[in-house]
Amino acid sequence: MSRAVLLSIFLFFTTINLNADFHEGKKLFIEKCSSCHKEYISFKKLKENFFERNNTLLNLTIPTENMLAWAIMESSKKIGDPNDNEMRKIEIEDYLKTYLANPDLNDSICDSHVLKYYKKKEPMEISDEESELLAQYFMGYKDDRLKNNPKPVKILSKDYNEKEILEKAKKEGKEIIVFATSQTCYFCKKMKKEVLSLTEVEEAINEDFIFLEVDIDFVNLPFGLKKYFKGMTPTFFFLTTDGQLLHTYPGAWVKDDFLQILKENL
Fold it and tell me: What PROSITE patterns does the record tag this protein with (predicted)?
């Protein structure tokens, strides 16, 4: 048997084991942690809660599951080297065991601004196997969420329901983007292929916005946007969760400029 075949078999079973460990870690988190740590809440809504409303919107006393995953994997206090997964997993395991055994907010990796809202956690003992499974869960959390959530783009049909869209926006705490396009628009197709389909852009949209694509040749623009539309495609309309127009951006954009537009509308 060739080395290439052996390598393929090794990678195949390694992937299976990693996936199994992640799902076992997820199961463990649900059984031991989900009674305290709430499920996913968008970071836009979390920012509003902590930085604008002094935690009066959500009244969180413990971080949500996505806040934990972000703190461990992506925050300024993240654990381990992102370029060394094996060592990073060991460091995350060690941190989880040590912190849970003796919880101390002064040793927390959570954002310092939100710590004042959290209550002291009771000590909790976990085994080496449990710490390993939880580490696998947090390390795979973001990829799993992206994989199991639909693409952020919703193409509106003629029978769309504005009320349902607004209810979804309010429930998820997300603003709305309306993308005015047409089948004959060259720059719309170019931007969809070269910008909107990029993982980084999809993640940014999916995190904080509901994205609606409207072919103006066949479907009317929602939320009374027709009176603001100057006939140029593409045009991007940014609206509040109540459907009120915030900003209009006519024309096509490169990745960095479009990401900046998204940030400006948070």
Answer: CYTC (PS51007), THIOREDOXIN_2 (PS51352)
